[in-house]
Amino acid sequence: MEPPQITDIPHLGQVVPSLLAAVGDSGSVNTLALPDSRSAAVLLIDGLGWELLHEHAADAPVLAELAGRPLRVGFPSTTAAGLAAIGTGLASGEHGMVGYTFEMPGAGVLNALRWCSHEHGGDLRGALPPLEVQPLPTTFERAAAAGIEAAVVSSARFSDTALTRATQRGARYAGVHALGDLAARTLDVLAEGRAFCYAYHSELDMLGHLYGPGSTAWRMQLRQVDRLVESLVDGLPPGALLAVVADHGMVAVDGALDIDETPELLPGVRAIGGEVRARHVYTEPGAADDVLAAWRAVLGDRAWVRSRDEAIEAGWFGHTVSDRVRPRIGDVVAAAQGRFGMVRELAEAVESSLIGQHGSLTTAEQLVPLVTVRG
Q: Residue 6: inside a domain, yes or no?
């Protein structure tokens, strides 16, 4: 069985270049055919899948009514990759943020959200400077070069993280604390003139992880997100364009296998990255074929298991995978089907305990809404 074929659906990385082109950046291409505008903003709701939105449309009537078409987020369907797609306009094979955790040659497995060693938690900001991990120009730098004021409106606690530096450099950062100042700061940027704003809301994803997507807590948060979007739409200055997107969907895992407690999966394995729904498996020299065969035999139809070359050839990481990024991809890559999960209960105790997960190639994780509204 092959993963769903959704390559005819636009990619998340197309959103910001299209918005910049709509605001007048001649160096960007408006592949989404967005209307010409005086200023533009993209609001990213972490964890808001297309299928989840339509399953719970009654809790988000504004979003459900305005969501005209889906986007696909690419592999892996996870926050680090999604934020980098917004921040570079590219898929993971080029921007290089190929997972929640992934191996950086010579430095071990990097946790891309915390910028620390996945094995022992040590800070890697010195060993792995953000500009070296993600050296490509950001969409914010491109906006500034085109004379467009670029701003990020996001939680104050993310203002100087390594991931922010890797994916959002070139923007003026406005740190906020709640939904109220998130909306107010975004509208302030849109009113400044020729400007582009990226706004980010993380809490829907957090509650999906903790309680499960579709849980009462998640639905209550979705209602607050819908009010946020309604406030932005109501306050849009004339000529301003708002796009609302997400970085991935989510599924509630029902049935998991502990990798570290499954002896058949471990011979020849040097390191493991990724996350519960999408794994990078790094092998000892000469062991890749045996590891691939073992993972396929054990996981069966619970996961799509491919060699690095097969995953790249199938386009999992986009049309192009650069030589810089290729070694970060596992020698073996496993993407969960259905509601299956590949946990590590001791090595990844917190991550393994979460109900909601994402990262794989299912439409529940891959498809996110695209809402566009012009003031």
A: no
Q: Are residues 230 and 339 in the same domain?
A: no
The structural domain count of the chain equals: 2
Residue 211 structure tokens: 């309680």
Query: How much is the pLDDT for 362?
Result: 98
Model pLDDT, residue 1: 79
Helix (H) or strand (E) holding 106: none
Beta carbons of 120 and 110 less than 8 angstroms apart: no
pLDDT at 68: 87
Tell me the C-alpha distance between 334 and 155, whole Å.
33
CA torsion sign for 79, 135, 164, 151 is negative
Residues 345 and 366 in one domain: no
Question: Is 119 inside a domain boundary?
Answer: yes
Check whether residue 149 and residue 236 sit in a common domain. Answer: yes
- Owner of token pair 């980010």: 200
- Give the list of residues 6+ apart from residue 99 with CB closer than 8 angstroms, or none: 76, 78, 80, 81, 112, 273, 274, 275, 278, 280, 328, 359
- Global pTM value: 0.96
How far is the C-alpha of 215 from the C-alpha of 226, rounded, in Å? 16
337-353 pLDDT per residue, tens: 999 999 999 999 999 99
Judged against a pLDDT cut of 90, whether residue 336 lies above it is answered with yes
Looking at residue 55, which CATH number applies to its domain? 3.40.720.10
144 neighbors 21 (Cβ within 8 angstroms): no
Q: Is residue 2 a part of any domain in this protein?
A: no
Q: Is 370 helix (H, G, I), strand (E, B) or coil?
A: strand
pLDDT at residue 58 greater than cutoff 90: yes
